[in-house]
C-alpha cells in the first residue's frame, strides 16, 4: 500500500494536515489536492476542530504543481481542471470557518508559496525560502499571484513574480508573507503555542471574525464599516460574548459554549 498523500491528525481541537509526498517535494498532484479538498470540507463541518495546522514531511514544504503530471495531461480541459481544483483548495482555506496556520520548514515555491499566502497565519523556519519561479520556465505564476498579491505589497509581489528569485524567511517576514521567522528547532513549539492560544478562544467568535475579516477587505470603507457594525452587533448578542464580558468583569476564566 502506498502512503497517503495527506496525513490527518486531530488532537485537542487542533487538526494537523501534513503534505506527505516527500520524494516529490510535496508537489500538488491531483490526488493530493483532491484529498486536501475533501479534508477541508470535513473540517468545515466539524465543530470540534478549532484550528488547522498545515505542515509537510520531507526537506521541502511544497514545490508547487506536479509538473511531470501536468505535462502528461491531454487537452485544454484537463489542464484547466487542475488549476480549477487548486483554486478551490486555496479558496477553501480562506473560507474555512477555522483559522489555518502554515508551518513552513523548507522551500515553498509556486503553488506552494500560494498555499502559504492563502493561510491565515504562517510561521517559517529561518532556513525556509519562498519563490514564484514560474517565469523561469515560461509559465508565469498567475494563480499563485492571486494569494501572493493579497499577502504582500504590490511591488514585493511583482519582484517575486517577475524575477522568480527565492526570498528568505527574514525577508518573507518583513514583507508580510509569514508572521515570523524562527530557528528551525523552535518552529514546532511556536506554531503549537499559537494554535493552542487560538483554540482556547470562543470558536464562534473566531469563526465570525475570520469571515468578517476577509469579506470587509473586498469592500469600500463605508460599506466595510456598515458590514462590520452589523457583524459586531450580532456578535455582541451571542451567548459567548455575554459570557466573555461577564467573566472579564468578574475576573474569572470564561466558559465558552461555542455559540
UniProtKB/TrEMBL annotation:
Superkingdom of the organism of origin = Bacteria
Show the Gene3D superfamilies listed in the entry: 2-enoyl-CoA Hydratase, Chain A, domain 1, Lyase 2-enoyl-coa Hydratase, Chain A, domain 2
Q: Which CDD domains match?
A: crotonase-like
What keywords would UniProt list here?
Fatty acid metabolism, Lipid metabolism, Transit peptide
- According to the record, the signal peptide region is none
Q: Which molecular function GO terms apply here? A: hydro-lyase activity
Q: Name one Pfam family in it.
A: ECH_1
Checking InterPro entries in the record gives:
ClpP/crotonase-like_dom_sf, Enoyl-CoA_hydra/iso, Enoyl-CoA_hydra_C, Mitochondrial_ECH-domain
Q: Which Gene Ontology biological process is one annotated for this entry? A: fatty acid metabolic process
The UniProt entry's sequence similarity note says: Belongs to the enoyl-CoA hydratase/isomerase family.
Its function, per the record, reads: May play a role in fatty acid biosynthesis and insulin sensitivity.
PANTHER family attached here?
Answer: ENOYL-COA HYDRATASE DOMAIN-CONTAINING PROTEIN 3, MITOCHONDRIAL (PTHR43602:SF1), PTHR43602
Q: In its UniProt entry, what is this protein called?
A: Enoyl-CoA hydratase domain-containing protein 3, mitochondrial
Amino acid at each position: 500500500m502506498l502512503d497517503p498523500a495527506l496525513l490527518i491528525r486531530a488532537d485537542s481541537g487542533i487538526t494537523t494536515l501534513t503534505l506527505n509526498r516527500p520524494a516529490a517535494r510535496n508537489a500538488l498532484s491531483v490526488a493530493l489536492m483532491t484529498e486536501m479538498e475533501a479534508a477541508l470540507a470535513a473540517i468545515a463541518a466539524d465543530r470540534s476542530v478549532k484550528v488547522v495546522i498545515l505542515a509537510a514531511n520531507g526537506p521541502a514544504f511544497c514545490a508547487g504543481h506536479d509538473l511531470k503530471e501536468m505535462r502528461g495531461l491531454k487537452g485544454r480541459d484537463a489542464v484547466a481542471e487542475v488549476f480549477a481544483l487548486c483554486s478551490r483548495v486555496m479558496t477553501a482555506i480562506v473560507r474555512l470557518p477555522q483559522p489555518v496556520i502554515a508551518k513552513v520548514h523548507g522551500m515553498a515555491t509556486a503553488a506552494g508559496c500560494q498555499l502559504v499566502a492563502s493561510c491565515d497565519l504562517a510561521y517559517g523556519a529561518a532556513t525556509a525560502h519562498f519563490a514564484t519561479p514560474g517565469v523561469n520556465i515560461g509559465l508565469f505564476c498567475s494563480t499563485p499571484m492571486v494569494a501572493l498579491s493579497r499577502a504582500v505589497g504590490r511591488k514585493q509581489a511583482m519582484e517575486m513574480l517577475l524575477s522568480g528569485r527565492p526570498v528568505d524567511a527574514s525577508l518573507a517576514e518583513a514583507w508580510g508573507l509569514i508572521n515570523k521567522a524562527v530557528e528551525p528547532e523552535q518552529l514546532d513549539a511556536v506554531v503549537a503555542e499559537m494554535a493552542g492560544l487560538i483554540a482556547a478562544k470562543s470558536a464562534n467568535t473566531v469563526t465570525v471574525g475570520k469571515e468578517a475579516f476577509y469579506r470587509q477587505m473586498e469592500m469600500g470603507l463605508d460599506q466595510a464599516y456598515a458590514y462590520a457594525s452589523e457583524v459586531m452587533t450580532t456578535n455582541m448578542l451571542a451567548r459567548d460574548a455575554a459570557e466573555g464580558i461577564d467573566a472579564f468583569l468578574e475576573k474569572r476564566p470564561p466558559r465558552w459554549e461555542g455559540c
